[in-house]
Design goal:
The chain has 20 helices and no strands. The protein is an all-alpha fold.
Length: 480
C-alpha cells in the first residue's frame, strides 16, 4: 500500500509539460497580439529565439543538475543572499500579477454563464478573485501532487484544447470563404516601428515567455528528474509556440481589429466565430473551458515560487511565522501571506471598478524585477559550468556561455526598455513614468535585502541533519 502511495506521488512528464506550458502560455493575450496581424509571427519568434529557447535550455541544465529551482541555482553560484533575492523577485512579481489573471478568470466566468455584462462589475470581479484564489491556495495546501493533477488537466481543458479548436476554426474560416479581417489584411510580416513606444513593445515581448523555470522546484517529485524534466521542457516549448502563433493568426483573420483590444477579447473571438458557423452556444462552453484553464494557471503559479521562497527562508532569511508549514509539509505561512495581499488588491476593484489599466501598469513595472531574476539565473549557469565542470549533468547546453549570454543580453535590454511606456497611458503620464517604475522596483525589490540584514539565529529552522548536510556541501565547495 505504501509503495502504491509513493508511486502515485510522482509527477509525470505529461503533467510537468502541461504545467510548464500553462505557466507560460495564456490565451488571454492573443487578441492584443492579433492586432499586429502577420507581424505577430516575427513578434513571437524573435523573443522566442532570444529568450524562450535560452531559458528552456539553461533551465533544463540547471534543473537536471541542481534540484530546488532558481533559489538553489543562484545560491550555488553567488551565495545565499543572492539566491534569496532571486526567488523573492520571482515570488513578488507573481503576487502582483494574480489580480490581473484572476480578473480574466472573472470575465471568462461571466461569459460562461451568459452574463458578459458582469465582466464590468467590480463587485463580481472582486468576489471571483477572492474565491478562486483561496480555492487555489486550498488545493496547494493539500500537498502531494493534487495541485499538479488539477493544473495539468485544467490546462488541457482551458488552454491546449481551446488553442487546437482555434486552429481548426481558422482552417474552417478559410475553407468556407469567410471574409478575412483588417488586422490581417492591413498588416505586413515586418512589425511597424514608428517610435520608441513600438520598439519598447517588441523588445518587452520577451516577458510573454516568462515562467519556464517556475516548476523546476517540483523536479524532485519526478521519477527520473534528470531525464523527465528535460523532456518535459522541450515538449513545453513546442506546445507554447503552437498555442501562441497559429491561434493568434486565426483571430486576426476572423475578428475585426476594433474588437481585439478588449480585455475579454478571447471570449469575444470564440463567440464571434462560433456564431458565424451557427453554433453560438459553444461560445459559452469555451468561455467555461478558458475559465478552468486560467484557474489551472493560477494554481501552478501559487505552488511554485512560494515553495522556493520557503526553501530560502528556512536557512534563516525569513521570520519563523512565514516559515510555518502544515501537516502536508506545505508552506502555509507564505501562502496565507500572499493570499492576504491578493485579497487586499482585489478589493480595489470594488472601490475603482475600472482599475484594470492600473494593474496592467503595476504588473508591467513589477516585470522589471523578474528580468533581474533572469539575469541572475543566466549568470549563475555560466558560473556553475566553470565552478563545477566535472559534476554529472542530466543535460548539458551546447555552447552554454553563448546561449546564456544571448538570454542575458535580451533580459538587460528588456529591463532598460521597461522604464519607458509602450504606449500613452491615461493612468501614468509619460513624463513621470520612468520615476514611477523606479519607485515600484525599489519598493517591491528591497524587502529581501532588509530581511537579510535583520536576520536572527533563531530564524534558521533547519533540522540538525539539514544543517550538517549544508555544511558538508560548503566544505566540498571550499576543497574545490
Amino acid at each position: 500500500m505504501d509503495l502504491y502511495a509513493e508511486k502515485k506521488s510522482y509527477l509525470s512528464v505529461f503533467q510537468m509539460t502541461i504545467m510548464t506550458t500553462i505557466t507560460v502560455a495564456s490565451l488571454r493575450g492573443l487578441p492584443a497580439m492579433a492586432i499586429e496581424g502577420k507581424a505577430s509571427i516575427i513578434m513571437y519568434l524573435v523573443p522566442a529565439i532570444l529568450f524562450l529557447v535560452p531559458t528552456a535550455l539553461v533551465g533544463a541544465e540547471l534543473a537536471s543538475t541542481y534540484q530546488g529551482g532558481v533559489y538553489v541555482w543562484v545560491k550555488e553560484a553567488f551565495g545565499n543572499k543572492w539566491g534569496f533575492l532571486a526567488i523573492w523577485l520571482q515570488w513578488i512579481q507573481n503576487v502582483v500579477w494574480y489580480p490581473i489573471q484572476l480578473a480574466f478568470v472573472a470575465a471568462a466566468l461571466a461569459f460562461a454563464i451568459g452574463r458578459p455584462d458582469l465582466s464590468n462589475s467590480g463587485l463580481f470581479t472582486t468576489a471571483v478573485i477572492i474565491i478562486v484564489y483561496w480555492l487555489a491556495t486550498f488545493l496547494s495546501l493539500q500537498g502531494g501532487n493534487l495541485f499538479a493533477k488539477v493544473s495539468s488537466y485544467g490546462g488541457m481543458i482551458g488552454t491546449i484544447i481551446p488553442a487546437v479548436v482555434l486552429i481548426f476554426l481558422g482552417g474552417m474560416w478559410l475553407a468556407t470563404g469567410e471574409p478575412i479581417r483588417d488586422a490581417y489584411t492591413e498588416s505586413s510580416f515586418l512589425p511597424k516601428v514608428t517610435g520608441i513606444g513600438s520598439l519598447v513593445l517588441i523588445i518587452s515581448n520577451v516577458l510573454a515567455y516568462a515562467g519556464m523555470e517556475v516548476n523546476a522546484v517540483h523536479v524532485d517529485q519526478m521519477r527520473n528528474p534528470k531525464k523527465d524534466y528535460t523532456k518535459s521542457v522541450f515538449l513545453a516549448v513546442i506546445l507554447i509556440m503552437l498555442v501562441f502563433i497559429i491561434p493568434t493568426l486565426t483571430i486576426s483573420i476572423a475578428i475585426p481589429k476594433r474588437d481585439l483590444g478588449l480585455d475579454n477579447g478571447i471570449m469575444v473571438a470564440f463567440s464571434s466565430m462560433f456564431e458565424r458557423f451557427g453554433v453560438g452556444w459553444l461560445g459559452n462552453v469555451f468561455a467555461g473551458a478558458i475559465f478552468i484553464g486560467a484557474i489551472a494557471s493560477v494554481i501552478t503559479w501559487v505552488s511554485g515560487p512560494s515553495k522556493g521562497l520557503l526553501a530560502a527562508g528556512r536557512t534563516g532569511l525569513l521570520p519563523p511565522l512565514l516559515q510555518k508549514k502544515n501537516k502536508h509539509d506545505v508552506q502555509v505561512g507564505i501562502l496565507i501571506l500572499q493570499g492576504l495581499i491578493v485579497t487586499a488588491l482585489a478589493m480595489i476593484y470594488v472601490l475603482i471598478p475600472d482599475v484594470s489599466e492600473v494593474f496592467l501598469a503595476l504588473v508591467g513595472m513589477a516585470a522589471a524585477l523578474y528580468l533581474i531574476m533572469y539575469v541572475l539565473m543566466y549568470a549563475a549557469a555560466i558560473i556553475l559550468r566553470k565552478k563545477d565542470p566535472k559534476i554529472k549533468r542530466g543535460y548539458s547546453v551546447p555552447a552554454l556561455p553563448l546561449v546564456a549570454g544571448i538570454g542575458l543580453i535580451a533580459c538587460v535590454l528588456a529591463f532598460v526598455v521597461s522604464f519607458f511606456p509602450a504606449q500613452t497611458s491615461s493612468v501614468i503620464p509619460s513624463s513621470i513614468y520612468t520615476l514611477v517604475v523606479l519607485v515600484v522596483v525599489v519598493i517591491l525589490g528591497i524587502p529581501p535585502l532588509v530581511f537579510y540584514a535583520l536576520r536572527k539565529p533563531n530564524w534558521d529552522r533547519r533540522t540538525e541533519v539539514e544543517k550538517q548536510a549544508t555544511a558538508r556541501l560548503e566544505e566540498l565547495e571550499e576543497e574545490k
